[in-house]
Amino acid sequence: MSTLTTTTRRKPWTPGRVLFWLTLIVLTVIFVAPLLWMVSTSFKTNEDATALPLSWLPRPFTTDAYKTVLTASSATPVLRWFLNSLLVAVANSVLVVTVDALAAYALARLRFRGQKFAFGTVVATLFVPPFVFLIPNFLIVSKLGWLDSLWALIIPSAGGAFGVFFLRQFFSSLPVDLEEAALIEGANQWQIFTRIVLPLARPALATLTVLSFLTNWNDFLWPVYVLFSAEHQTLPAGLSTLQSSATTNYPLAMAGAVVASVPVLILFVAAQRHVIQSVTHSGLKG
Amino acid sequence: MTVQAPPVRPESRSDAGVPGNSRTIPRHGRLTPYLFLAPFAVLFIGFVLVPAIFGLWVSLHDYNYLLPGQPWVGLQNYLDLFTPGSRDSGDFWHSMLATGIFTVLSVPFLIVCPLGVALLLNRAFRGRSFFRAVFFAPYVLGVSVVGLLFRFLLDPNIGLVNSYLGHAIPWTTDVPWAWVSLVAMTVWWTLGFNAIIYLAGLQEISPELYEAAEVDGASRWDQFRNVTLPGLRPVVAFVTTVTLLASANMFGQAFLVTKGAPANETRTAIMYIASTGLGSNRQGMAAAMSYILAIILIGISALNLRLSRRREAS
């Protein structure tokens, strides 16, 4: 109580301050209300969700939608899609960080013929709109026998150049003194890479991991077209089939949406700094 | 907090040259760099370089991956797209128009609204990082969740929006409402992304400039016009380019919420390319379309870059 009065005394409620907080609260409601509606609907029965007038509270409260959605035998195996998404996003981000860190180290620290050309080519592809690769990669993936397989979601996107560019810039900004000292002590490049550069680059590696995970988890167009069978879908592709029928069961669809949202929201809250930083970095890249 | 990543630096230490004495130490074997590069190189060549060229080759064929033969047609696919009345030209350019309409309608909002939010968040107040997280949260959800959610909120009969408005507005089935829906949900979804970039830009502006302006008796509005906006100019140019490209790539929102309705009015270019190439398996024609769209987009972003450079110079 006493702290409340002191803060009030320190900062008087000027009209500007009232307007500021009012704007902030209205905006917050606009951003939070749709998410609350999603959660509320997921605990409703289908009759309740479509009965007018609409109610913010489920009457009756039921977890039936989750039971249906999380049962493997149902036509909408959301749990299976969830596990597919998790497997794909983890495998893809581990692959991306591993191959990108190795390549970025060579581009930043080692010297070889064609180095400038290689880096220039990598950077140039960042300017090509991604949909250009859609049709040819579909054909390549079909030749590899990866259509309707999770490999199509794990491997091809790891060829993207952003991570190499991002890590190369980070590695280049690290001081060389430690590496020089290690060289004199007789360390080889592999030891320098794994024992000096990687530990120093941990924040950049974490940022790239989080970014790759989020991108992959939310990827939509590609899985919609390369995955066919119900049990091979990832969450985004599977969710879109939940509402394609004329009679959408909204509690079911919203339960699926909640299941898809919770992991990324947890990841976002836990790794907020890295997520925000990856956005800021994509801003600095321009 | 010590792990703040340094900003991207143009010069790199190793490029700048290693001190003379270290040159006598054998730094690494001749093959070492290639071993480090190899895993990425395989993926990069296989799924970026080869597709970029292979796509061109596909676009010169009547390509259907399910058929045994892929007849060579030369530039016919491209010529067809520029021939009024041909099978695809009408639908293709109509979808390009839809993408154009969406881009023109959405980009101004996606540039201005996030700037407003960034200015709010740039003030010192309690719970700042909480509100930053709230406004950014929709972006991490992805288009599938956001699309599903807005399809429900905007349902003409049982949607929350119409229930509050008291009118049965056809948000998803008629223009112009469908455009309003698509733009609004895109702003809701991606506002946080642009706001974070603006916020980083705002924090780069030296506080001394504001202090000097205040000493000169400049009002809040004067400060915004004469300090904030000029300081943000490169960031605004960047946000504009990224947003233009993102809007021109719009797919998920229309695919999920309007499904292109009414009568393909909101079917975007990416939707049409995907359904031609991956739905109807006419990969040659779809590849040709994607190169035309790519050339237009690269042209627009080059133009945008030049314009903002010129403005900066003047």
UniProtKB/TrEMBL annotation, chain A:
GO CC, alphabetical: plasma membrane
SUPFAM superfamilies referenced in this protein's UniProt entry, alphabetically: MetI-like
Keywords: Cell membrane, Membrane, Transmembrane, Transmembrane helix, Transport
Primary location group: membrane
Segments passing through the bilayer: 18-39, 81-105, 117-138, 150-171, 192-214, 250-271
Statement: the UniProt record of this protein carries the keyword Magnesium: no
Membrane topology: Multi-pass membrane protein
PROSITE patterns reported for this sequence: ABC_TM1 (PS50928)
GO biological process, one term: transmembrane transport
Cellular localisation: Cell membrane
Protein family according to the UniProt entry: Belongs to the binding-protein-dependent transport system permease family.
Record's protein name: Sugar ABC transporter permease
UniProtKB/TrEMBL annotation, chain B:
Pfam families named among the record's database cross-references: BPD_transp_1 (PF00528)
SUPFAM superfamilies in alphabetical order: MetI-like
Localization (cell): Cell membrane
Topology of this chain in the membrane: Multi-pass membrane protein
Membrane-spanning residues: 34-58, 92-121, 133-154, 177-200, 235-256, 285-305
Disordered: region residues: 1-24
Swiss-Prot/TrEMBL GO biological process terms: transmembrane transport
Family to which the UniProt record says this protein belongs: Belongs to the binding-protein-dependent transport system permease family.
Name by which UniProt lists this protein: Sugar ABC transporter permease
Source organism (scientific name): Winogradskya consettensis
